[in-house]
Amino acid sequence: MLKERLQILMGSEQRKRLETEAKRRNMSVAALIREAVDQHLGTISREERARAVEGIRAMRGRFLPPDELERLVEEERTRAAAP
User: Fold this and answer.
1) C-beta of residue 29 within 8 angstroms of C-beta of residue 18
2) Which residues lie closer than 8 Å to 25 by C-beta, 6 or more apart?
3) CA distances (Å), 10 to each of 7, 26, 54, 71, in order?
4) CB–CB of 19/11 below 8 Å?
5) How far apart are CA 37 and CA 18, in angstroms?
6) Burial environment of residue 40 by CB neighbours within 10 A (0 to 12, 13 to 18, 19 or more)
7) Could you list the pLDDT tens digit for every one of the 83 residues in the chain?
8) Is the pTM of this model over 0.70?
């Protein structure tokens, strides 16, 4: 249930882009903005995020560092894109 009202200022080109996209998707501009906020900022509360971080910290075992994971993911993307 929606309870909060928000007023924002934007440029006319931004508004036109929002209206065009909302019409294309057959939805209201407000619904499009809510969707964009959820996609950009996520829908997870701070408490949920804090619990997830604690869960990750409590994990035991051998894990790859982020840069190594990124390298492996990029290799797989390259391999998948190859003809």
Assistant:
1) yes
2) 32
3) 10, 22, 39, 39
4) no
5) 13
6) exposed
7) 788 899 999 999 999 999 999 999 999 999 999 999 988 888 888 888 889 888 888 888 777 888 888 899 999 988 888 87
8) no
